[in-house]
Design a protein that fits this description.
alpha+beta; 42% helix
Amino acid sequence: MIRAYKFLMRPTVGQSIALEEMLRDHCSLYNGALQERRDAWRHISKTSVKYGMQSAQLKDIRAFDPQRHGRWSFSSQQGTLRRLDKAMQAFFRRVKAGETPGYPRFRGVSWFDTVDFPKDGDGCRWDSTPHDPTTRVRLQGVGHVKVNQHRAVVGKVKTVSVKREGRKWFVVLTAEQEQPEPLPKTGSVVGIDLGISNFLADSNGEFVPNPRHGRRNADALADAQQALARFPRVRRDKRTKKHRLAVEKVAALHGKTRRQRLDQAHKTALGLVRQHDLIAHEKLTIRNMVHAPKPKPDPETAGNFLPNGAAAKAGLNKSIHDAGWGVFLAILTSKAESAGRTIIAVDPRNTSRTCPACEHVSAENRTTQEKFHCVACGHLAHADTVGAINVLNRAGLVRCDANPA
């Protein structure tokens, strides 16, 4: 199996300058390759330029401009061209599927923040000695950069990537390792229901509160964004020091919220994987859940629209994004695979409207956000717990002791 590791780098001032130049030159290569593809399609009878053709030109590009392109790894430049090729393939795939195409865009220097090295030892070298606190990664054109390795890397390192986040630099490794030993069996199965008021409710009647990290940091973020909005929009190289500090403060608050969500998702998923052999959850299509409602034209007055609940839906969409269900389910699936646990995704339709006692389905069963009261048999329970029990039942594992909570 393949596992990824992310470590903080500690570059010197000179190495930080070299890393910025590396990103800048790879960004220039990406934009130049994209421009070549656009020109060939528009002016040379719709000719498609492929990755192989552009990769073959790298030797001449490096010889023509050795200061900008010749000092960086040939393999990393090929990785940048592969990124563009994947973006173009995804564009044509969306065109054929009838979806919104989204043609690949040119990248600004601030947007281009990752350089990939497809193979360890080719333009880069991960140098980690067991029980040695000094860990370094060697990058061609940059040198040996110190790395804060907070955990051991298990397996053989396959790829290395350098990523910039604000003022910090990270190295991301992918290592190939053997399938780990599964955790001991617990004999427990559980169904979970994700929500807004409670982040998670399980079929045993337990709840995980929703921390609402985005809402808690909303005031500080609003103040930082207002301070940033006072500066006129200028090019990146024309910004003043105060302007740059305002940009970094907004980015730091966004990063704090993201790290808080990740921390909560990892801890919650780890607890579930350690306690249960099988975990059933709803198969959520979050992209469809956060669509804005369609406008309702007023048939009596041209140009006017009727109320469609857009404001309320916008608030709900914001809460869904703040909860981070997609990130949590991805982390849960990864941890379950490593621990030898089973994950089952079931159809979420009517899970909160179906009575687990008599299986009667009705929208009237859920009287409020938290209360479930079956109109057929009178079964009374917490609505989120009922949803989790129904999720477990749909996974084909009806528990004999699944008494109403």
